[in-house]
């Protein structure tokens, strides 16, 4: 799902991979205390206005000795480096590392990177010669880093200090200097604006001709050059080449692609064009409300400037005056270039400077065909004649040569000959039919992707539809590569899909031909008029897979009945619609829902899963009916907006969003009942949650930058509280007010010294405190009358557990890795205890009272190296599992022979045990392991036991009667046929056969 606009959200789907994308254009390096709130802030805001992708590096945010791989990647990808060389810059090892890396990339990729240094309150010569504060800083670094490192840093400072940059003194207006830097950056960024490929064969003469027209005198103030000709002849390519050559001669410039397509928008094509012009010229986002407002802004703010504006692919719907106002009001130094298929459009505009490109010459046509058919300029000898024939068929049309040549790439002679015959049957005037032969050779999924792009995804980031196509098993990675290889698709510098309008029209023609008369019987509907008619008349058919509709100028609501018949719909895009009703189970095959500026969206549950490229989740404020929000494994997501507006949200789960720095607005979610935040390692602070009066379950896990959880003590409805692996938390509020709390788990909070108030949690049923290595003492637990499960693990500073012996409701008790505990209370009062596990409490000499635990079913004592004796266990009539391991001071296990319910017995590595009781009475025993008890010489009674599953015993042990070979074979077969479900004791089991071979299980 994706919502955009002032109230919006982003796509949710899954993708096992993501396409490569250049993250940043500018890398801004500075030392925070010097310039963070002054010059760096001014410059960043200027760069952010036209959405220049800027990596804002603040050395105070760096950790460790070396710069991170992600930062190295950002430097490698950025085109422009701006180090702000302030007095404290050299004191930062990270800044110096970055500067050295910038210089390395600058030299390595010659011409690919630019360094624009800012000398902030520094003389360039002091930077160049490392004088003053820089000399002192390097001397300090010399104490820690080797001479080679210092030399690299000094060389970097020397070279950058020699570069031309900007000086900022105390008397300078910093904002004005930042404006100057921005203008320089903007000129470089815009210089890389258009996508000019290496297919520009024979274009120079066309470009020179248009350049001469631009330089000539214009009569009557109509400073417009028109380029006209048939589709595919190269008009757009010529216009782009001219634009790239001359844009630096103008104060401002703008290239508007495919004006015809923009004006086809029923209601706001004109304002869309005006917004693009104004935003580009004024270098700021600007949304025009209506055409008259747009003309007013253009007349007053654009016309006085020297501008270059290219209007590409216009048709008879284009009227200069309705979009730009009077052309005579523009500066005489301004220039316009208009491309069109229809010369009459230029004549109506009274354009006198006209140019009509001719078809490519024979030699240039042959060169272009070869370049695409062979990926080289010289073909194989056996296809020379065929190349000549294809050149004749293409009739000098560059687009046809490109597409046909790409189709022939890596195909045999037979395929070439068949396609030549096919092309010769198509009249030269029917260019689209000739180009369509390339589409016909695509696979089924490649055709689906091609039609999707041509109908709705031109201009979209290429990664966004990937998720949907993957979900539909279209294999998008391969499909997009094929379309690019066939010259049916390109990707521009902004990572967006681009198609030649001729190729786009082929795709749309194919869809229209599915049913000429009834649009709702086609697979894709992108025309707003067709979409609205279908929804109003209820004519939706189950053939429609892709639907795009703009409801800005419609006066009806979208209800579930409008979508009931669209069972195959996988993509739905709605702009400014009002959706009402229950949409549950209406669109079973929907894979992508995009909602722009939609008010009150009736969605109950939103899942955003594995969106690898998602950086910002736009506002959720329109999802007023949302009850469940789950955001899972979005590694780049850093912002979530609009949470505070979700009045009905009851469940919030945010998992593995490692760049997310905060969750603002959760303190306003008064309906919230469940909140889980896991492995969001960049979150340092959460809002005070005290107002969440309905919150029942709060789990915060793996947020290792989080220092506190404010307001948790006010959550009177809270029943479950889990805080795990939050290693920076040093204090929790007093929890005694949580009267309804049933489960409390605190794990891996190794800076937390205490948990205050748990002794008054009368409703508590589960208490787990694990790996809290700073806790030395727990309060008296005796008042926890409902506690059923207690786990204390890895608290290696804890010395005692007060009140344990009075927990009469306790069912399970686990105490492990508490090395300083020397004594436990008498446990005999725990009459409901059924599981007791004590592991690695190696100062504990005894466990008093276990002989009276009549309900005990599981007893495990592992590596309790100080225990010398156990009480008589014979009264434990329900004991089914007994595990004693590594208790090397223990000498005997009294009462073992009376445990008639025992099913599993494991006694291992108990070096002091010399004797065990006769086991013949343990008729229910099914699992037996006795190993590593070096002083034990005999085990009696096992020959009369009924075995069914596991049996391991040292071969050296004597038995009362040696088992016959057949008996061992029976045990072997029993083990091989055992069920896969393991017992409570997770072990590797085996059988020792008579010949001492070990059978691995």
Automatic annotation (TrEMBL):
GO terms for biological process: defense response; response to other organism; signal transduction. SMART domains: TIR. Gene3D superfamilies: Helical domain of apoptotic protease-activating factors, P-loop containing nucleotide triphosphate hydrolases, Ribonuclease Inhibitor, Toll/interleukin-1 receptor homology (TIR) domain. Keywords: Leucine-rich repeat, NAD, Plant defense, Repeat. Pfam families: LRR_14, NB-ARC, TIR, WHD_ROQ1. One of its GO terms (molecular function) is ADP binding. Residues 22-185 form the TIR domain. The keyword NAD applies. InterPro entries: Apaf_helical, Disease_R_plants, LRR_dom_sf, LRR_R13L4/SHOC2-like, NB-ARC, P-loop_NTPase, TIR_dom, Toll_tir_struct_dom_sf. This is TIR domain-containing protein.
């Amino acid at each position: 799902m994706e919502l955009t606009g002032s109230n919006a959200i982003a796509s949710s789907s899954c993708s096992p991979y993501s396409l490569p994308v250049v993250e940043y254009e500018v890398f801004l390096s500075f030392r925070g205390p010097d310039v963070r709130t002054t010059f760096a802030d001014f410059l960043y805001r200027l760069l952010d206005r036209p959405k220049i992708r800027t990596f804002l590096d603040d050395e105070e945010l760096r950790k460790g000795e070396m710069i991170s791989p992600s930062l190295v990647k950002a430097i490698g990808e950025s085109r422009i480096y701006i180090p702000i060389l302030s007095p404290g810059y050299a004191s930062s090892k990270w800044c110096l590392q970055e500067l050295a890396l910038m210089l390395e990339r600058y030299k390595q990729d010659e011409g690919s990177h630019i360094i624009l240094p800012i000398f902030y309150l520094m003389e360039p010569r002091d930077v160049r010669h490392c004088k003053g504060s820089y000399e002192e800083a390097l001397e300090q670094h010399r104490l820690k880093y080797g001479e080679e490192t210092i030399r690299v840093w000094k060389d970097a400072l020397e070279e950058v200090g020699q570069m031309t940059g900007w000086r900022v003194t105390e008397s300078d207006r910093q904002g004005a200097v930042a404006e100057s830097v921005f203008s320089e950056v903007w000129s470089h960024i815009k210089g890389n604006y258009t996508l000019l490929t290496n297919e520009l064969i024979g274009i120079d003469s066309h470009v020179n001709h248009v350049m001469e027209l631009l330089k000539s005198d214009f009569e009557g103030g109509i400073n417009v050059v028109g380029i006209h000709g048939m589709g595919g002849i190269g008009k757009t390519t010529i216009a782009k080449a001219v634009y790239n050559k001359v844009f630096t001669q103008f104060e401002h410039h703008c290239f508007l692609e495919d004006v015809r397509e923009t004006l086809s928008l029923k209601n706001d094509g004109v304002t869309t064009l005006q917004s693009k012009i104004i935003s580009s010229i004024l270098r700021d986002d600007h949304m025009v409300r209506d055409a008259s407002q747009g003309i007013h802004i253009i007349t007053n703010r654009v016309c006085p400037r020297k501008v270059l504006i290219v209007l590409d692919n216009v048709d008879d719907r284009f009227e200069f005056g309705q979009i730009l106002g009077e052309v005579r009001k523009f500066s005489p130094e301004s220039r316009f270039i208009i491309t069109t298929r229809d010369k009459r459009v230029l004549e109506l505009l009274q354009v006198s400077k006209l140019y009509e490109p001719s078809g490519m010459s024979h030699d240039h046509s042959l060169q272009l065909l070869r370049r695409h058919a062979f990926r080289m300029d010289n073909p194989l000898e056996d296809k020379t004649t065929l190349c000549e024939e294809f050149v004749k068929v293409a009739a000098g049309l560059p687009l046809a040569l490109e597409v046909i040549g790409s189709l022939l790439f890596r195909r045999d002679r037979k395929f070439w000959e068949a396609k030549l015959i096919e092309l010769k049957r198509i009249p030269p005037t029917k260019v689209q039919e000739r180009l369509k032969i390339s589409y016909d050779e695509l696979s089924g999924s490649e055709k689906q992707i091609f039609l999707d792009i041509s109908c709705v995804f031109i201009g979209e980031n290429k990664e966004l539809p990937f998720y949907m196509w993957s979900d539909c098993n279209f294999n998008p990675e391969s499909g997009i590569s094929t379309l690019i290889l066939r010259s049916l698709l390109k990707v521009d510098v902004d990572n967006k899909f681009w198609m030649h309008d001729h190729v786009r029209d082929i795709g749309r023609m194919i869809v229209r031909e599915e049913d000429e008369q009834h649009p709702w019987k086609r697979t894709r509907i992108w025309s707003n008029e067709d979409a609205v008619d279908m929804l109003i008349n209820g004519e939706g058919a189950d053939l429609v897979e892709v639907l795009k509709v703009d409801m800005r100028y419609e006066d009806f609501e979208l209800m579930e009945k409008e979508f009931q018949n669209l069972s195959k719909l996988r993509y739905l895009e709605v702009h400014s619609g009002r959706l009402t009703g229950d949409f549950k189970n209406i669109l079973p095959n929907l894979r992508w829902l995009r909602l722009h500026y939609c008010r009150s969206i009736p969605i109950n549950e939103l899942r955003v899963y594995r969106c690898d490229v998602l950086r910002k989740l736009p506002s959720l404020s329109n999802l007023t009916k949302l009850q469940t929000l789950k955001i899972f494994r979005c590694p780049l997501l850093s912002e979530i907006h609009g949470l505070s507006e979700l009045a009905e949200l009851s469940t919030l789960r945010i998992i593995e969003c490692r760049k997310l720095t905060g969750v603002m607005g959760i303190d306003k979610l008064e309906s919230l009942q469940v909140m889980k935040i896991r492995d969001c390692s960049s979150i340092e602070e959460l809002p005070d949650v005290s107002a969440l009066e309905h919150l029942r379950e709060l789990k915060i896990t793996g947020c290792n930058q989080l220092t506190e959880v404010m307001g948790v003590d006010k959550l009177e409805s809270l029943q479950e509280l889990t805080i795990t692996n939050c290693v920076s938390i040093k204090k929790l509020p007093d929890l005694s007010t949580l009267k309804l709390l049933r489960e409390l788990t605190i794990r891996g909070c190794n800076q937390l010294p205490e948990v205050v108030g748990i002794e008054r949690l009368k409703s508590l049923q589960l208490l787990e405190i694990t790996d809290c290595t700073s806790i030395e003492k727990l309060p008296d637990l005796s008042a926890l009358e409902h506690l059923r499960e207690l786990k204390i693990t890895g608290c290696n500073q804890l010395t005692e557990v007060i009140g344990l012996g009075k927990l009469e409701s306790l069912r399970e008790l686990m105490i492990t890795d508490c090395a300083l505990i020397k004594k436990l209370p008498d446990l005999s009062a725990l009459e409901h205890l059924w599981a007791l596990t004590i592991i690695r409490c190696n100062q504990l000499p005894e466990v008093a009272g276990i002989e009276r635990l009549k309900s005990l079913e599981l007893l495990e004592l592992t590596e309790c190296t100080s225990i010398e004796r156990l009480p008589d266990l014979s009264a434990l009539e329900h004991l089914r599992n007994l595990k004693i391991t590594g208790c090397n001071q223990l000498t005997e296990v009294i009462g073992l022979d009376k445990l008639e319910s025992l099913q599993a017995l494991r006694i291992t590595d108990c070096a002091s045990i010399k004797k065990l009781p006769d086991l013949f009475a343990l008729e229910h025993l099914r699992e037996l392991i006795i190993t590593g008890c070096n002083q034990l010489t005999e085990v009696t009674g096992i020959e009369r036991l009924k075995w069914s599953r596991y049996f391991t015993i040292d071969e050296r042990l004597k038995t009362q009667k040696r088992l016959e070979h057949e008996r061992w074979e029976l045990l072997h077969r029993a083990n091989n046929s055992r069920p896969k479900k393991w017992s409570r004791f997770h072990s590797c089991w085996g059988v020792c056969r008579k010949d001492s071979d070990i059978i691995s299980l």
